[in-house]
Design goal:
Blueprint: E1 13-15, H1 25-43, E2 50-53, H2 69-83, E3 87-90, H3 106-120, E4 133-140, E5 143-149, E6 155-157, E7 166-170, E8 176-177, E9 179-183, E10 186-190, E11 197-202, E12 213-215, E13 224-225
Parallel strand pairs: 1-2, 2-3
Antiparallel strand pairs: 4-5, 5-10, 6-12, 7-8, 7-11, 9-10, 11-13
Helix pairs in contact: 1-2
Length: 228
């Protein structure tokens, strides 16, 4: 279907897709990486900018940490953006509707894509185009210290309340809700019942209601897990 456009000059591509692939998240990173490479080859314009819109929140919220194919799928999108040259990811985890696979707030979806395009395609390095992206973790006693990239002018909670949607697990244990606080450009996560933590998840759900880690520029953190 795209072949007739192969000879047209383009500036880049915006990619919003994945709902029908969410149950097959294991293969999606390979598929999307191959698609990007193929498009770049067919257009013969080098590694043109490719911007991925991460799937938003959808379906009913759950009151306990659980597995989620949509969360795993978002993680595949994130990993693609981190591994493929000249790509970017926009996070939309706060823009979805639980009962509508197509979010109504398309204006903000588009605005975030435009920020990514300003920075990636038009090389405006003064534009903050992304919310916080998980970088690394270190365990200090019974607490986990998380570091992030794309902090902008600093980490904040969107609503000014305590951080929500962080979960923590010890060796061989299930994920349980955790307390979390911002310290500079880091987040400290713990649960008093988990003495030897090994992994943390954030916004790991189909619909992580209340996820509120942002940068001061108003862009949300991408959902993530540390145990990979």
């Amino acid at each position: 279907m795209l072949a007739p456009a192969n000879n047209y000059a383009i500036k880049g591509a915006l990619w919003y897709q994945g709902e029908s692939n969410a149950e097959r998240y294991q293969e999606y990173q390979k598929l999307l990486t191959a698609l990007i490479a193929d498009w770049r080859l067919k257009h013969n314009q080098g590694n043109f900018p490719f911007i991925i819109a991460q799937l938003p929140n959808f379906m009913e919220a759950k009151d306990q940490p659980s597995e989620s194919s949509w969360a795993s799928f978002r993680n595949a999108q994130l990993k693609t953006s981190l591994s493929v040259e000249n790509t970017a990811l926009t996070v939309n985890i706060d823009l979805g509707d639980w009962n509508d696979v197509h979010p109504q707030n398309k204006e903000e979806v588009g605005r975030r894509l435009s920020l990514a395009a300003e920075r990636l395609a038009y090389h405006d390095k003064n534009v903050v185009a992304s919310g916080p992206i998980y970088q690394s973790m270190s365990v200090k006693g019974n607490k986990v210290e998380l570091t992030f990239t794309n902090c902008g002018s600093g980490l904040v909670t969107k609503d000014g309340k305590v951080l929500k949607q962080f979960a923590i697990a010890g060796i061989g244990s299930k994920f349980v809700w955790a307390q979390a606080k911002i310290v500079g450009n880091k987040v400290i996560v713990w649960n008093v019942a988990i003495l030897n933590p090994v992994a943390v998840r954030y916004a790991w759900a189909d619909n992580p209601e209340g996820a509120n880690l942002y940068n001061t520029e108003g862009l949300p953190a991408s959902p993530f897990k540390t145990n990979e």
